[in-house]
Amino acid sequence: MLAAGIQPTHIDTHHHANLLGDFNEIYLKLADEYHLPVRNNFHNQEPTRKTTDGFVYKMEPVLQSEKSLKQLFETPDTVEIMCHPAFLDQFLLASSSYTYPRTEELELLTDPATKELFSTQEEIELAVSAK
């Protein structure tokens, strides 16, 4: 990536491959070497690198109400909520096993009630990780 002139902003892995075998050690070594933040999907391990304090695999439960969203931040200060919203096309249908839930996530994220929920929370910052 660097040789191609692309400057990474963070490190994460597809399908949480960093948790398989010894790969996590390499993953964290690269993060340290290049001073990059990493996705905190370490399953209750204390993160030692620049990362969020928490990580949520499913966004639907925490976006149900203002109460559930506030509960998410009771312990951690920062949380990444992973999601994969998308419109389905032939490429996605043919190349991914995670298809229809993407449309549900897109509907939830574009729902006016969700927009209102986010707008009432000063501590929320939306970020996009492009693949």
Average pLDDT figure: 85
The count of helical stretches stands at 5
Q: Which word captures the global form?
A: globular
Report the order of strands and helices.
Answer: HEHEHHH
What is the percentage of strand-forming residues?
Answer: under 5%
In helices, the fraction of residues equals 25-40%
Distance between the termini: 13 Å
DSSP E strands, number: 2
Rg over C-alpha atoms, rounded to the nearest angstrom? 16 Å
Describe the main β-sheet briefly. 2 strands, parallel
Layout of helices and strands, plus pairs?
Layout: H1 23-34, E1 54-56, H2 66-72, E2 79-81, H3 90-95, H4 100-110, H5 112-119
Parallel strand pairs: 1-2
Please give a handful of descriptors for the protein shown.
131 residues, mainly alpha, 2 domains, two-stranded parallel sheet
What does this entry show, briefly?
By secondary structure, this protein is mainly alpha-helical. Helices cover about 35% and strands about 5% of the residues. It is globular.
Structure report:
The chain is mainly alpha-helical. The chain has helices spanning 23-34, 66-72, 90-95, 100-110, 112-119; strands at residues 54-56, 79-81. The longest helix has 12 residues, at 23-34. The protein is built from 5 helices and 2 strands. A two-stranded parallel sheet has the order 1-2. The two termini are 13 Å apart.
